[in-house]
Design goal:
Elements: E1 8-14, H1 24-35, E2 38-50, E3 54-57, E4 60-63, H2 69-78, E5 87-92, E6 103-110
Parallel strand pairs: 1-2
Antiparallel strand pairs: 2-6, 3-4, 5-6
């Protein structure tokens, strides 16, 4: 089962899961899959676009799930993270608004349980 996949002590993801879809439910499902590889007691370091529905690189547009601090916090709680370990900061990047996002999210957390 999925528990057999939970074998990493550290998971670092930057601007990946939030940028595979513009559908927040699909984002939650994808986050569940990704977070499922982290062991109990494991650490997450995550960066994501903040409040972005799509972003541009040159003339091309790419999807984003329009994630904010509350969405990410709930997602981490729902996927077994200890509330007291979750730290999420939103950092404004006004120079990037023309590209489709007003800032970034930086998150840290520990999955509940003990390392085996």
């Amino acid at each position: 089962g999925l528990q057999s996949l939970a074998h990493y002590d550290l998971l670092v993801t930057g601007y990946c899961v939030d940028c595979i879809t513009d559908d927040r439910d699909e984002w939650r499902a994808a986050m569940g899959n990704v977070l499922g590889v982290l062991r109990p007691g494991g650490t997450l370091i995550l960066d994501a676009l903040w409040r972005c529905r799509s972003y541009r690189v040159g003339s091309r547009s790419f999807p984003s799930a329009d994630v904010d601090v509350d969405d990410l916090y709930r997602c981490l709680l729902d996927n077994g993270f200890e509330s007291r370990s979750i730290e999420i900061e939103a950092h404004a990047c006004p120079e990037q608004e023309a590209c489709g996002y007003p800032g970034i999210l930086v998150a840290f957390g520990t999955k509940a349980g003990r390392m085996q």
